From TrEMBL:
Family annotation (Gene3D superfamilies): Dsl1p vesicle tethering complex, Tip20p subunit, domain D
Protein name per UniProt: RAD50-interacting protein 1
Cellular component terms (Gene Ontology): Dsl1/NZR complex
GO biological process: endoplasmic reticulum to Golgi vesicle-mediated transport; regulation of ER to Golgi vesicle-mediated transport; retrograde vesicle-mediated transport, Golgi to endoplasmic reticulum
Pfam family, one: RINT1_TIP1
InterPro entries (UniProt xref): EXOC6PINT-1/Sec15/Tip20_C_dom2 (IPR042044), RINT1_Tip20 (IPR007528)
Family recorded in the similarity comment: Belongs to the RINT1 family.
Coiled coil start-end: 61-88
Length: 750
């Protein structure tokens, strides 16, 4: 049925094509033949093209098709071979499975036997070296025994990560066994040779080191052998843990080289003999005895260590080891052990504890400054920074400092200068309490500045800042009691002390030590707040963790508070002097300036006498009681106040005749200004306002009228100021200058 349907569809399509071509116009059917021929030709062309597409395949496509066919064939062949091999393997496994089952236990046994063989080989190697050491010792070839021991130690380093724990344990025990034997043998030999050369070299002894070659050569040989007799690091640490002491629990000690230990041993015995037990030299009140003894031993043996022992270390290849430093490390341990033994009892007595701290600090300072003991190594300061000891140290230090401040401020000479009778050096007039407080702070700094840890130094710094604020509060309390007498001895002494303290603190800010502390303080973590009482809230607020700023210092807040106190006290003195002078100035302010005639013969006006005498007395008092820098500042401020007062209360509040103007000028230039002539060569420079006012008051009438005209004109401010400057007037503004001119009676006011 498909064929007839296809024919029918073709007919329908043909009808549609003809209909679409010719439509309903019958006349157009005459072109049907040509349409047929055209369509037939098109069909033939399409058939030809289809025929060419079928047979004319490009060579590349043809080659690709061939390759694909060959690949398919190869794949089929390989698949067949794979199936065959897989079948053969399965069959072979079936055949071999019984054999494998039989051989597997045998292989396991062989592997186990190989492990036993290797294990026994290691044991045999260890025993062989052990026998070599034994043989060498029996034939007194100690150097050979030491060499064999070194190879045994190297073998342990190779095997130390092995999982054979029993073998490692056997190796450890063997090493320690021979180590102890060799160490004892060489130690006894070294002790004998050291006695021969006169070790230890005590300064008070009459004996001197042997100079003959034989004893020296023997000691050198034994010393070098002991240098080679070193335990592997892991074994050394393990052995150290077994002999744990208080010091080794608290601190890390690198073990001394064996021969250096033996150099220290006779001195350790002497130290124990003298400074332990019931000996009179074991006196807790005299820690300087054992500190001094150790320093003497270092001094006595330095030359021998530098010249003789250092050479042996370099021969053995220990180039990075300093003989004297190693020796000092051994002696420092003696000191630390003694301090640790005494401290539990000493800490109960504040004075004994403080004395021990002072001596330990001095000892540590001597080690580093005199004998070049390297920083970072164990020292007496380590004992003082054990938490319980350090807390006690801070507690007692603060208590004694507060007691010292109490004594300073309650002293009958607290507000007197120690150099009051020596005028040449007493320019600062520092009161005794102020200077002693700075000495106290310096002493505390000297005690903690060599602490190895920044954290511990910062704890002391915090205490110093608290003491600084405490002292400031005490000064404020005393100052308030004497504020009514601003030029009294006590008030001025407090001001001198405050000025001195701020100057010293500013100097400290620039020292390397406090700059470093500022860095550590700025970068240390901020401690969580635990609440603060009212007094704490008054303390400085800039704390740790704020970030390091090069222009800041640890004393910035303390300096700011002292500066504020100083400014307040300066204002009180200035106010007191100014008000006193002004109180005596009323007759002068009300003087008959407009009625005075120009007599030509001038003298100090009567109303000015009392005022200037009071001013002179205050200047003399300030000069006598204030430090030179403070006095210079005060008289300059007082001069400025007087100049302003004379302008505003005398000149601008009165009218002046020519005689009155000349009298005022005479009073100022010949009497007021000279009061300051003792303190400066050009006092008029500090009275610019009143001096310029006098210039305008005494200006000739014509010039005064022209100047006033300029000042009252519409000229610019710059032109008015230029006109004033031409007359030497720089300080007065144009308006004030006009007001001064208008106070003249010989100028008509418009």
């Amino acid at each position: 049925m498909d064929a007839p349907m296809s024919v029918d569809r073709c007919k329908e399509n043909a009808v549609k094509i003809v209909y679409s071509k010719f439509g309903d116009n019958i006349k157009s059917l005459s072109d049907l033949k040509s349409f047929y021929l055209e369509t037939k030709q098109t069909a033939e062309t399409i058939e030809n093209r289809l025929s060419l597409s079928e047979w004319d395949i490009p060579p590349e496509v043809d080659e690709a098709l061939k390759n694909a066919e060959e690949a398919q064939t190869s794949i089929n062949n390989l698949q067949k071979k794979s199936d065959a091999i897989r079948n053969e393997a399965v069959d072979h496994c079936k055949i071999l499975k019984p054999i494998v089952n039989d051989l597997t236990p045998l292989v396991s046994q062989i592997e186990e036997l190989q492990k036993y063989r290797q294990y026994l080989s290691c044991v045999a190697h260890i025993e062989n070296i052990s026998n070599q050491i034994y043989t060498a010792l029996m034939s007194n070839r100690t150097s050979n025994a030491v060499e064999e021991f070194s190879s045994l130690s190297e073998y342990y380093i190779q095997k130390q990560h092995s999982k054979c724990q029993n073998l490692l344990q056997f190796l450890k025990e063997t090493i320690l066994f021979w180590y102890n034997i060799l160490k004892d043998k060489l130690s006894s030999l070294l002790e004998e040779s050291l006695k021969v050369v006169g070790w230890p070299l005590i300064a008070t002894a009459t004996k001197t080191p042997q100079t003959s070659s034989h004893p020296s050569q023997k000691m050198d040989a034994i010393f070098l052998q002991l240098l080679l007799l070193q335990l592997p690091d892991s074994l050394s640490v393990e052995l150290q843990k077994k002999t744990m002491t208080f010091l080794s629990r608290e601190f890390t000690f690198n073990p001394l080289l064996l021969p250096i230990q033996h150099l220290v041993t006779p001195l350790r015995k002497r130290f124990k003999f003298h400074f332990y037990g019931n000996k009179q030299t074991n006196n807790k009140e005299k820690p300087e005895w054992y500190f001094g003894q150790v320093l003497n031993w270092i001094r006595d043996h330095s030359s021998f260590l530098d010249n003789r022992i250092q050479n042996l270390l370099e021969i053995a290849g220990f180039y990075s080891v300093d003989a004297k430093v190693e020796f000092m490390r051994g002696l420092v341990v003696l000191v630390m052990e003694k301090m640790a033994a005494d401290l539990p009892a000493v800490m109960e007595d504040e004075h004994l504890f403080c004395h021990l701290v002072d001596e330990a600090i001095f000892f540590d300072h001597e080690l580093h400054q005199i004998y070049d003991y390297p920083a970072g190594l164990n020292s007496s300061m380590d004992i003082l920074t054990v938490p319980i000891v350090f807390e006690r140290w801070i507690e007692i230090e603060k208590k004694f400092a507060i007691e010292k401040m109490d004594a300073l401020l309650s002293s009958p000479t607290a507000w007197e200068s120690q150099y009051k009778n020596i005028a040449d050096i007493d320019t600062l007039k520092v009161p005794e309490c102020g200077e002693s407080f700075i000495t106290l702070m310096s002493t505390i700094t000297d005690r903690y500045k060599y602490l190895p840890s920044p954290e511990h130094r910062l704890k002391f710094l915090d205490m110093q800042l608290e003491l600084l604020e405490d002292f400031r509060i005490r000064l404020v309390q005393v100052m308030k009691e004497v504020t009514h007498d601003s030029l009294g001895d006590t008030f001025c002494a407090i001001l001198n002390g405050v000025h001195y303290i701020t100057d010293v603190l500013r100097e400290w800010c620039n020292t390397t030590f406090f700059v470093e502390l500022q860095y550590h303080n700025a970068t240390r973590p901020v401690e969580p707040s635990t609440g603060a009482d009212e007094e704490d809230t008054k303390r400085p607020t800039k704390r740790a963790g704020a970030g390091f700023m090069a222009d800041e210092s640890v004393f910035d807040e303390g300096i700011d508070l002292f500066d504020k106190l100083k400014v307040e006290m300066e204002k009180n003195i200035l106010k007191h002097a100014t008000l006193d002078v002004q109180a005596r100035s009323q007759p002068y302010r009300k003087y008959r300036w407009r009625n005075l005639e120009d007599s030509g013969d001038l003298s100090l006006s009567t109303p000015a006498c009392d005022m200037l005498m009071v001013l002179r007395d205050h200047l003399m008092t300030m000069n006598r009681k204030l430090s030179k820098p403070l006095f210079v500042k005060m008289w300059r401020k007082l001069a400025e106040e007087m100049s302003k007062f004379m302008l505003e209360e005398v000149v601008l509040q009165n009218r002046f005749s020519e005689g009155g103007a000349k009298q005022l000028e005479f009073d100022m230039t010949r009497n007021l200004f000279p009061l300051y002539g003792e303190y400066t060569t050009k006092p008029q420079n500090y009275f610019r306002l009143i001096n310029e006012a006098c210039t305008l008051l005494c200006l000739r009438v014509g010039s005064a009228l022209l100047l006033r005209e300029v000042l009252m004109s519409e000229e610019s401010r710059l032109e008015k100021e230029q006109a004033l400057q031409d007359l030497g007037v720089y300080k007065l503004t144009p308006q004030r200058a006009l007001n001064v001119l208008n106070s003249r009676t010989n100028l008509s006011v418009t």
